[in-house]
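Course assignment 3, question 2. Fill in each field.
Student: A.L.
Task: Predict the tertiary structure for the chain below.
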Amino acid sequence: MIALGMVQLMVVAGHETTVHGIGSMLFRVAAEPGLRERLLADPACCGPPCTSRLRIDPPIMHMARTAVDDHPRAGAELRAGDKVMLNYGQPTGPGEVRPPREFDIDRPANQHLSFGTGRHRCIGEHLA
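Answer field:
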């Protein structure tokens, strides 16, 4: 039964994130002025647009979690059992001065959280 649950999780989660990821990148290529032409002229520059797109529009926007211990966080007290929402979109790196909501093909790569982190990191990240 556990194996069936894992297969179902992989199929459903893998399908949804892949469809959303491909669709949102195609939208960016079509919507951003000059991006299509730039990518056609220099296919080697494909990495930065993917990173910038993931930062703005990750395959999964947020994930709910339950706090397991009490923690003070940002002036508030999280108590064991409290529900929290992890927002994967819009992270910026330390010292980032560019507008966070702006799609920027020339933005230096940063450590975005689009695929989560730690033990909850997306196992399909490299496929995506």
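Instructor remarks: The mean pLDDT is 77. Helices lie at 2-31, 35-41, 47-56.
Grade: pending
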